[in-house]
Design a protein that fits this description.
By secondary structure, this protein is of the alpha/beta class. It contains three helices and four strands. The longest helix has 13 residues, at 84-96.
Length: 99
């Protein structure tokens, strides 16, 4: 089967996706900084890498090590509109991190 990276995979949606992919026989690696998710949301067979989508060295190492077939990018912060700081923070993590 495929090797799949799920960013934000320890959150509610990501953990359910990771579980569904595992049930279908895929190898799943989750990248999450655990700021909004929990390691306990993941099963024992999911590889959890704690880190940021902004860490280019970590991402390069993960892609070299696992040769992912697919990436599900679910890492994002919410809370838009609370302040200019939050907007800048969300932009950096949600937009720049996606690039």
């Amino acid at each position: 089967m495929s090797t799949i990276l799920v960013t934000g995979g320890a959150g509610f949606i990501g953990s359910h996706l990771a579980e569904a992919l595992m049930r279908r026989g895929h190898a799943v690696v989750v990248l999450d900084d655990l700021s909004g998710g929990f390691a306990d949301n993941l099963g024992d067979t999911v590889v959890l890498v704690r880190g940021s989508i902004l860490d280019v060295e970590l991402l390069s190492r993960l892609f070299a090590e696992h040769a992912f077939d697919y990436v599900y990018h679910l890492a994002a912060y919410a809370a838009e509109g609370l302040s200019h700081f939050i907007k800048r923070f969300n932009y950096t993590n949600n937009v720049v991190g996606s690039v």
